[in-house]
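For the sake of transparency, this paper describes our internal protein records without simplification. The record that follows is passed on verbatim for readers who wish to inspect the format:
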Amino acid sequence: MLHPNLVVTGRVEGKSVFVDEQPLEPAQIPAFPGLEIFLAWGTADGGASNAETEPKAVLAPYFPGAGGTRLLLVTWPPATVDEPTDPQPATPWAEEILAGLATTVEKDHPGMHTSATLDYGVVLSGEMWLELDNGAERRLPAGTCVVQRGTRHLKFPPGHGQRVFTLRG
């Protein structure tokens, strides 16, 4: 099980300092038992700034707009879990944080979705598969880096593992 922490740095009076350190709590979706999404950091749409003395993460909506970013870690459960039964998050916190994600998942092809973001992904452990809308598939073992350029796709794990993603609007 992944237990990620967030460490944020900044500048005070011209010196580098640690401004925040905290454990991250997962957003969980009951329809996907064992799936944990840790939204670690995000910046506002329009471009990142390092000018804030007390930076605040922008975590919602899930997909950033133009110039915004998101950093997340995801733990997928073993591939024994069947297709999702309900694409909507259950808790208010998960609904707020994951706003926009559930609406991109296609009802007639569970898991298949398209986003308008540029996504970078790294498989940290385990492996997963990436399927495109033309049926082409690629195995992604640990250490694989993926650049997802707004294409219609489906990610599915053959086994338990962790991945990290950055999303850029």
About this structure: The chain is about 5% helix and 40% strand. The radius of gyration is 16 Å.
